[in-house]
Amino acid sequence: MAKIEAGKMSLTISYLPIRQVLHEITGLTADTANQKKLNMCLDIADDLPPIEADSLKVKQILYNLLSNAVKFTPDEGQIGVKTRHTETEIEIIIWDTGIGIAAENMEKIFEGFFRIETPYSRLTEGTGLGLPIAKSLVKLHGGEFVIESEGVNKGTSVRITLPIKQKSVAKHNENQNSCS
């Protein structure tokens, strides 16, 4: 978190088959979801294009968000992943029917080490860094991070958008001499 805040975090960009990554991350959380008898709804577009992104950081974002959905959804609830894309970006929505977030806590959840105090949250582990890190990593990729909840016990929806192609940071000198 300190590296991100100090502007010292860099991305290692590669082509990332995001559809495959989403199936991998949902597979990693499936056992815990099954133990809680959660219904996992996947609506991952078949034509989702690969993106230019930092593989490890995108996996961290998705794992944090999906594991939060599993963690904060009571037994027999629902969680889900939905995707869509345009020519320039992909959108991933991770949603749940869990404990939700009260309006007064919507901004606080992005403060490091903040955890909402509820009887349910005392049963779960965590540092309160998952959401702030995920949001910062999405922003570092040039994407958007939006979280919504209609309130306590009304579930949560996190929508992230990531560019399909990263903006080039290399500057080209148009006046370079060419050799013939």
UniProtKB/TrEMBL annotation:
Keywords: Kinase, Transferase, Two-component regulatory system
Annotated Pfam families: HATPase_c (PF02518)
The UniProt record lists the keyword Kinase: yes
Entries under PANTHER family matching the protein: HISTIDINE KINASE, TWO-COMPONENT HISTIDINE KINASE
Protein name: histidine kinase
Catalytic activity: ATP + protein L-histidine = ADP + protein N-phospho-L-histidine
Key word Glycoprotein present: no
Sequence ranges assigned to domain Histidine kinase in this UniProt record: 1-166
InterPro entries: HATPase_C_sf, HATPase_dom, His_kinase_dom, Sensor_HK_Regulatory, Sig_transdc_His_kin-like_C
GO molecular function ontology, one term from the record: kinase activity
EC number: 2.7.13.3
